[in-house]
Design a protein that fits this description.
Layout: E1 11-12, H1 16-32, H2 38-58, H3 65-74, H4 86-105, E2 108-109
Antiparallel strand pairs: 1-2
Helix pairs in contact: 1-2, 1-4, 2-3
C-alpha cells in the first residue's frame, strides 16, 4: 500500500508482445515485397493489428483503434491493395512505428491485481 493511503490500480501492457512482433513483421515485409511470401506478411500484419485493436477496446482506449484498424485494412490479404515503390516501403516503416508506439503506450487495468502477490 502506498503512504498516501490510496493505491493506484495496477496496469499491464497486453499489446507489448504483438507490437514487437508486428514491427518485426512490417520490417521483414520491406524485403519481401513482390514475392509470393509477401502474403504471409499481409496476414501477420493484419492479424496482429486486429489483436492489438481488441486490447485497445478492452482497455477503453478507443483512439488507439484508429491506426490499428487502418493497418488491418491496408494490409488485409482478402482484398489486397497493390501498392508498390518507395511510398509503400515508407508505409512499412510507418506501420512498424505504429506497432511499437501502441505496444509501448497502451496500458489497461490489470484484471487480476493480486497476481504478483502469489
Amino acid at each position: 500500500m502506498s503512504r498516501g493511503g490510496s493505491e493506484r490500480p495496477a496496469r499491464i501492457r497486453p499489446a507489448f508482445l504483438p507490437g514487437i512482433l508486428g514491427a518485426a513483421v512490417a520490417f521483414a515485409g520491406t524485403g519481401l515485397l513482390g514475392s509470393d511470401a509477401y502474403l504471409v506478411i499481409r496476414f501477420a500484419v493484419s492479424i496482429l493489428a486486429l489483436i492489438m485493436a481488441v486490447y485497445a477496446v478492452q482497455g477503453r482506449r478507443f483512439l488507439w483503434v484508429l491506426p490499428l484498424a487502418a493497418l488491418a485494412v491496408v494490409w488485409n490479404p482478402v482484398i489486397p491493395f497493390d501498392f508498390e515503390g518507395p511510398p509503400w516501403l515508407f508505409a512499412h516503416v510507418a506501420a512498424a512505428a505504429v506497432f511499437l508506439i501502441v505496444g509501448l503506450l497502451l496500458t489497461v487495468p490489470d484484471p487480476d491485481p493480486d497476481r504478483r502477490r502469489r
